[in-house]
Amino acid sequence: MTRMNVVVGVFAFGSLLVLASKTGAQSNDFAGRGFAPVNGTRLFYEVKGTGPAVVLIHGGQLDSRMWDEQLDVLAQQFAVIRYDVRGYGGSFQPDQLYSDAVTESWLKDPYMAPAMERGKLAPLLRRLSRENAHCWLNNPILQRSPRPLVAERLSEIKVPTLLVLGDRDVSQINATIETLEKGIKGSVKVVIKGAGHLVSMEEPEEFNETLLAFLEKLK
Hints:
Blueprint lengths: L5 E7 L2 E7 L8 E9 L2 E9 L3 E5 L10 H8 L3 E5 L16 H8 L5 H4 L5 H10 L29 E6 L4 H13 L4 E5 L6 H4 L1 H13 L3
Helix pairs in contact: 1-7, 2-4
């Protein structure tokens, strides 16, 4: 029996983690994957572990495989759910092919440069980016802005929040983190040296230690 009453936001730029469990909720050991019907489509998901639920949401032009280095570690203490957002990974049924030019353009962007310097990580990023390059084309989400603006509603976030930033990330993300830190009362910022935009993939061990230490305090 797991007893918690907490929702936690963890922003690791390029991605998002959410911990959520209701008081008195019972979690059993479970491991599996499949497709969940959601709003007229099917979303690919994978579940592993037991305890309070941790939901892993991937970043743009990637999919749930970006969490490979976190899944087993978190599953030792939590029920981990990772899934492919609509239109990405296993949640996408391709009806046309996309040029590799889209992928290469993205991989050369300053957002991706630190990660692409890592020989073991670069092939995985190239594969994930190529398979999800379609996310930039005909994407209605990229064509509209939320109303009201999210930055104007940060004070509404009342849950424990961890902000994880790589010290080699781009200036726009540094500015975003600063806005979040100021707007979310009680938020905690951690800067991981040597990492760029994809902190959880570039420095997985330090990221995992940081995340688990933060979650441990909430038990």
